[in-house]
Amino acid sequence: MAILKPFKAIRPIKDKAPLVASKPYDVLNTKEARIESSGNDLSFLHIVKPEIDFPDEQDPYAQEVYIKGRDNFKALCENNIMVQDETECYYIYMLEKDKRQQTGIVGCAGIEDYFNDIILKHELTRPDKEEDRKNHVRVTNMNAEPVFFAFRSVKALDKLVEEIKNNIPEYDFVAQDGVRHVVWKVCEKNLINAISDHFEKIDHTYVADGHHRTAAAALVGRELKKKNRYHQGIEEYNYFMAVHFPDNQLQIIDYNRIVKDLNGLSRETFLDLLGQSFEIKSNGPAQYKPQKLHEFGMFLEGNWFILRAKEGTYEDQDPIGVLDVTILSDQILKPILGIEDLRTDKRIDFVGGTRGLGELEKRVNNGEMKVAFALYPVTMDQLMDIADSGKIMPPKVTWFEPKLASGLFVHMLD
Question: How many C-beta atoms lie closer than 10 Å to residue 40's C-beta?
Fold first, then answer.
């Protein structure tokens, strides 16, 4: 059964929540985060991406950067911008975008559930990104951002959450990107017990978004466990913060790929090699967003192409083999472009579909990248089937939207 535990969150005071709340650390690059937080010293980006407070040439992974993030957080607390709840609570967190809502329960998951496969993963982490988040946890001694979990919907729990939402919320604001964030605090013992009781019947939870933060939280928790000669198993480092959403409320959008070069191939040779595994149709300068499984959009030298995978290039009966990311890797990235490991190869990057196809065009047209691939999104059923089977997707396959706000909840490890 999955562990879910209430905790004493450190949260912004009500009128400062819209100023503190920020996008997650991995949604913006340093330049974008610096622009987004400009003129707002309260933005939580100063905690989760503290390199924005240094000159451009600063190494974002240097120790002084993590220390700066810790100090920025301390300043918010010392100035009573963020305060800690006096009792352990759950928090109901609703996000609304384009009239679509999803509501989750903010609580703490158990680190041993991560290692015992109660918390199921569907993709591998990248070592550099995992180490970055581990260092952030080590220096700040907190889970600064909740991870995004899913679970198979439980009707009785859904009903209870909807009843709680009839109460007056702690926060209700619309962020600059148009996403509405609403939070209800649950501190009544009977409601806490009811939520916990329902969760005890759930066999597995699923890492939907935040594999690196999940791994970092669990691994640092174990480090602290080993260092504590008086470890009892009830310490806060045995838990980490997550928002748990029922699967039937979630939507995955596309997660696309861009590659720096054609691996020494000419345009003509590259297209000839593609033709062995794909039907290729030119779409000219008109953007093309895939409309179904096994269909891809490709942007190369100012033109879009429609690629349709030929029979025999995928395995519809295999939960991994059927994925378009697998087809892309097995038929293009590895054999043609020479990209063997998506976790470590610096020639490939990933772009969430929320940025639109225009972002793919921009990064190719400015010369930073050579070719871009737009993919059809996977489904929640596919994600959970893969996790249930014990198999692993390639990295950066799922993009969930809307994103959780950072800064609305912090979990301290002591």
Answer: 13
294: alpha, beta or left? (left if phi > 0; alpha if psi -120 to 50): left
CB burial of 117-153 (b: ≥16 within 10 Å; e: otherwise) equals: ebbbbbbbbbeebbbbbbbbbbbbebbbbbbbbbbee
Q: What sign does the CA torsion over 45, 46, 47, 49 have?
A: positive
Q: What is the pTM of this model?
A: 0.85
pLDDT at 324 over 90: yes
What is the side-by-side order of every strand in the sheet holding 371-374?
278-284, 303-309, 295-300, 371-374, 255-259, 348-352
Q: Are 73 and 410 in contact (CB under 8 A)?
A: yes
Looking only at the bridges linking them, the beta strands covering 90-97 and 82-84 are: unpaired
Q: Provide the 3-class DSSP secondary structure of residue 261.
A: coil
* pLDDT score of 159: 97
Q: Write the CA distances from 57 to 33, 102, 147, integer angstroms.
A: 15, 39, 30
Confidence of residue 397 (pLDDT cuts 50, 70, 90): confident
At residue 327, the pLDDT reads 95
Residue 124 has pLDDT above 80, yes or no: no
Helix and strand numbers (H, E) in the chain are 13, 20
- CA 366 to chain centroid, in Å, comes to 27
Phi, psi of 221 (to 5 degrees): -60, -40
Residues 91, 184 contacting (CB under 8 angstroms): yes
